Automatic annotation (TrEMBL):
Name of this chain's protein: Malate dehydrogenase (Oxaloacetate-decarboxylating)
Gene Ontology MF annotations: malic enzyme activity; metal ion binding; NAD binding; NADP binding; oxidoreductase activity, acting on the CH-OH group of donors, NAD or NADP as acceptor
Keyword set, alphabetical order: Metal-binding, Oxidoreductase
Entry annotation: catalytic residues: Y111 (proton donor), K166 (proton acceptor)
Domain ACT per the UniProt entry, residue ranges: 8-83
CC cofactor: Mg(2+); Mn(2+)
Residues given in the record as (S)-malate binding sites: N346, N371
Amino-acid positions noted as binding a divalent metal cation in the UniProt annotation, renumbered to this chain: E208, D209, D234
Cofactor binding annotation: Divalent metal cations. Prefers magnesium or manganese.
Domain of life of the native organism: Bacteria
Family designation: Belongs to the malic enzymes family.
Coiled-coil boundaries: none
Length: 439
């Protein structure tokens, strides 16, 4: 028997002798190979176990689980967990202490009464909070759940795994504590008011997966009203990484970006910011398509040209970027020979890179590769290091250039696990932020 997949069966079994054996026998009789068994919870009448089992394929998993369910007698299969589910069990993040408390002395130092002295120091000189608290190293990851990846408005709680994921990246790539903040309102007045009231615990605010158009007003107002860095990741983190990928592709293909015709499909949070960044960079012919009239108006107001049909945009553009959230929107027959295609929607792109390349594209990538993970960690690390009060266009441009400089010849962007890219983005942003503050 060839086993190709591993699943963990989370099974609740009444505490009767022989019950676990029944489950194990069914798995064995059906050809499943039992590995580790972990007891997750011992209740008064039942025990919940995590049984790891090797299966041949998905159908095999279903067959075995059906047989276990058919046992009855109170035996319940709660979940069939895979690697991704396993990685999420109990959540992906945890607030932990930097100081051990092993003695009464420790307790007195980190807590009462020692802590009172530090409170007084900060009370007399609020700037000391930078030195004596974690505020300057902590970023709030704020979402209202209205544009979670390309899954749409699924709410902030369903979006929490994404926010935890961003916190994991902050921690591991640049040592920032990211704290998810889930808002149960999308009303710009309420969002702005709420973030204003809680902002003092944070050195920066990362807005994440907040849909358009309300994301524009929310970010603009928060930037104006707060004196800490605020950035909407889906707008500017994405624009930075997209510019970097396009610059690398142009460099390899010998194309002058300023003279290239660039088409953007989807003019929401990510799309409009990408258009603005490319135009700021010098792209003269910036085309855009969207289904939404207001989104198209916003592109016109920013200096871009609206093209109603995606077919026409594909025909006219040397470089195409798509951020619609619609899987498979770009068909192979729409691809032009030699085009650069970045289909950035997550979790599924508008066209798979292999399909785009097969159809004649010179470069193609999806949102897993060209992803704002290459930008937001270093942008915030650099801004916090410089004690910047805002994230400015020159800082974003410096981040894009640092990503290009960290890219190996022939690649579009660096590998996200390459620590150099996050260090380089941090240093570039910090340098520019420092320059800005001297002016
Ligand atoms: N790779 C990355 O780093 C990255 C970063 C940000 C966003 N994204 C992806 O981009 C997508 C959009 O995110 P967003 O935050 O901009 O969302 P958004 O809701 O603000 O924007 C989506 C836009 O696409 C438009 N649209 C939808 N269907 C369309 C169609 N058939 N034709 C033309 N336009 C269409 C909508 O009208 C809207 O304006 C998501 O899938 C997200 O995962 C990827
Ligand atoms: O979360 C990601 O993978 C990138 C981006 O922020 C998105 O919303 O798709
Ligand atoms: Mg996002």
């Amino acid at each position: 028997m060839e086993y190709s997949i591993l699943r963990n069966l989370i099974i609740e079994i009444p505490q009767m002798p022989g019950n676990f054996a029944k489950v194990a026998s069914v798995i064995g009789a059906e050809g499943g190979d039992i590995g580790d068994i972990e007891t997750l919870k011992i209740g008064t009448h039942t025990t919940v176990r995590d049984i790891s089992v090797q299966f041949e394929n998905k159908e095999h998993v279903e067959r075995v689980v059906d047989k276990i369910r058919a046992l009855g007698d109170g035996i319940v299969v709660h979940a069939i967990s895979d690697d991704v589910m396993k990685a999420h069990e109990g959540g992906k993040i945890h607030m932990s202490s930097r100081r051990p408390v092993r003695s009464l002395g420790d307790l007195r130092r980190v807590y009462t009464p020692g802590v009172a002295n530090i409170c007084e120091i900060i009370h007399q000189d609020p700037e000391q909070a930078d030195y004596f608290t974690s505020i300057g190293n902590t970023v709030a990851i704020v979402t209202d759940g209205t544009a979670i990846l390309g899954l749409g408005n699924i709410g902030p709680v369903a979006g929490m795994p994404v926010m935890e994921g961003k916190a994991v990246l902050f921690d591991q790539f640049v040592g920032i504590s990211g704290v998810p903040i889930l808002l149960d309102t999308s009303d710009p007045d309420e969002v702005v008011e709420t973030v204003k009231h809680i902002h003092q615990a944070y050195g920066g605010i990362l807005l994440e997966d907040i849909g358009s158009p309300h994301c524009f007003e929310i970010e603009e107002r928060l930037k104006k009203e707060l004196d800490i860095p605020v950035m909407h990741d889906d707008q500017h983190g994405t624009a930075v990484v997209t510019l970097a990928a396009i610059l690398s592709a142009c460099r390899t293909a010998g194309v002058d970006l300023g003279k290239a015709k660039v088409g953007q499909i989807g003019l929401g949070a990510a799309g409009l910011a990408i258009c603005k960044m490319l135009m700021e960079y010098g792209v003269e012919e910036m085309y855009g398509s969207d289904l939404n009239a207001a989104a198209k108006d916003r592109l016109r107001e920013s200096g871009g040209t609206v093209i109603e049909s995606i077919n026409e945009l594909m025909e006219k553009s040397d470089i195409v970027v798509a951020t619609t959230g619609v899987q498979g929107l770009i068909k192979k027959e729409m691809v032009r020979e030699g085009q650069i295609i970045l289909a950035l929607s997550n979790p599924n792109p508008e066209i798979a890179p292999d399909d785009a390349l097969e159809a004649g594209a010179a470069f193609a990538a999806d949102g897993r590769l060209v992803n704002n993970v290459l930008g937001f960690p270093g942008i915030f690390r650099g801004a916090l290091n410089a004690r910047a009060k805002a994230i400015t266009y020159p800082m974003l441009l410096a981040a894009a250039e640092a990503i290009v400089d960290s890219t190996k010849p022939g690649d579009l962007v660096p590998h996200p696990l390459d620590p150099n890219v996050h260090v380089n983005v941090t240093e570039a942003v910090e340098r520019v932020a420092g320059d800005g503050q001297l002016d």
